[in-house]
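Appendix B: complex inputs.
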Amino acid sequence: MTASSPSTGAFAPLQSDSFLRACLRQATDHTPVWLMRQAGRYLPEYRDTRAKAGSFMGLATNTDYATEVTLQPLDRYPLDAAILFSDILTVPDAMGLGLSFALGEGPKFAKSVRDETAVAALAVPDMDKLRYVFDAVTSIRRALNGRVPLIGFSGSPWTLACYMVEGAGSDDYRHVKTLMYARPDLMHRILAINADAVAAYLNAQIEAGAQAVMVFDSWGGVLADGNFQTFSLAYTARVLAQLRREHAGARIPRIVFTKGGGLWLDDMGRLDCEVLGLDWTVNLGRARAAVGGQAGGPGKALQGNIDPNVLFADPRQIAAEVERTLASFGAPHQAPAGDPDQVGPTHIFNLGHGISQHTPPDHVAALVEAVHAGSRRMRQH
Amino acid sequence: MTASSPSTGAFAPLQSDSFLRACLRQATDHTPVWLMRQAGRYLPEYRDTRAKAGSFMGLATNTDYATEVTLQPLDRYPLDAAILFSDILTVPDAMGLGLSFALGEGPKFAKSVRDETAVAALAVPDMDKLRYVFDAVTSIRRALNGRVPLIGFSGSPWTLACYMVEGAGSDDYRHVKTLMYARPDLMHRILAINADAVAAYLNAQIEAGAQAVMVFDSWGGVLADGNFQTFSLAYTARVLAQLRREHAGARIPRIVFTKGGGLWLDDMGRLDCEVLGLDWTVNLGRARAAVGGQAGGPGKALQGNIDPNVLFADPRQIAAEVERTLASFGAPHQAPAGDPDQVGPTHIFNLGHGISQHTPPDHVAALVEAVHAGSRRMRQH
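Resulting structure:
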């Protein structure tokens, strides 16, 4: 083991593989569940750690703090996966754009990328600038000690470009779309650099210990039909083509989530990835019919898709919504006796977007319990 | 003619009926075009009138000012329809919730509707409180003097409820969705009242002179699959069922636009209305195949759907995007000789959402010119 490349051979064996099996469309005894942004502000212990760290980036760049907050939700709930605590915008930060988060506000870049000069200055960053992320991955993987698998992630090339051009979040994407419509050559240049950077970044997370990776295309859904395929999907595909398929003898499933991408599910079904994330506007049964495949055949595992606002109802109502979501996907894949790894349609339960900071923590317990109990019951029928 | 019910018999005959014909799926010699929010802040003459009026509501409630700004874009561009200058939230304002607009910000209500007591206090408002809108409709119709048809409009029951419960715009719809998930009984009560109020409001606009009406379901797209049908679409249908089909001997087409509703196009295809509005995420050719119908058969006219941000590109690029949009819909309905009113698939060109206040006015001229010229060329092939 060297300082620059921590060994991953020493990781403890995995005790709970339902998430990874479901990603690979293998049967499980329950529907695995994790929640986007599960380590976050709705947890008082997270707010305590963030207060100690001083800022969001102080939290994300400190290995011990990042490890601590990643494990917090696992100590409360029997979740089936952990996800690296970080931000989707670390890559453009490493490109020198200067990421910061004012308390209670969204991300902001010190520099935005809106003209030929700014685009010419962009390059795939030295991955050493993202060492803090890879160190966190290895530290979290060790701390998990095999409890559940660890998911790494990045923003998609298009989503990173949205923030890089706008300089912050936006409600109309005026600047990034102006660049796209008026200077498609510059936009393609940004996206190609982003794709290669994201691929290197995710591969380094895999080498550091991530057991699955997810691409968050949070803003793909703001694009026009046609432009989504050209400016978002094609560059997500460019990332996927460069990713490691396995590491240390294990397959590394790749998840792609386009918020608002339900209309383009058929296109996404052709991506070279194992899992598609879906938001709550999508009918899970129809998505399964479109891209979920048949037993013994090819297809995508589906991840999602309950509205995070369901968690503001009472626990009885949350359980009813969970039942509705499980039923919408329908009976999950159950492997025939003697062929436990035969593939078929699988569902990974999640929210359709990140959990709200206002969520009562005990409502999350009700959701996780309902997913586990309800999905076990489904398998007994 | 009485003060309480201005006669509409005196209106000048219509000189340009391509918009109304296209709504009814009748052939036209070009694709009609108008733009959502075409009377608005991107026009310097609008900003001048608004400055005189002092506030947005000062503008909307003054018949002369509302007439003046409605006609401003028609004096610049050969648009095929006018749309009443007003706001989608006049109905809840008339319910006593106190609508206001701070400069540069979105709408805000003095009171929000979040509990049983507030819901119990809601009722269909006395339409006399909206007299300023009906007076504006009649005044605009007179001022148009038959140049182009006048469209009336309202927010949809669900979209009104979003603002009524949130008290303003929102980025997560937490309060309205909490009410929906936790107290569906209260949400249904709000929506039933809204639907009946919107129907009365649109019928009064029709009686005052509106020649078509549009329901803006601006926030239908934030709902989960299943909830959209239950909490938005069903109440839009309740509005449509109560609307006048004709007035003063003319049919009154009804347009429904759900932003982000592309996934539910088949459901919307069953609405009792003539036209469906589409945003830019929808493929016009696929939408036409799904709900546009065949020559001589039933179906919906389609309205949309270019990304308003296209208007930030240069005029040559705008023209290319217009061509792409026209081609995406494909060859429009052309009636056989001897049967000019035979129905078939038609397209009404529009943006997929309201025009941005930052739009250069001469770019709008380029778009309108490209629609008219390109769609005339298409009909010659």
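Residues 1-6 of chain A have pLDDT under 50 and may be disordered.
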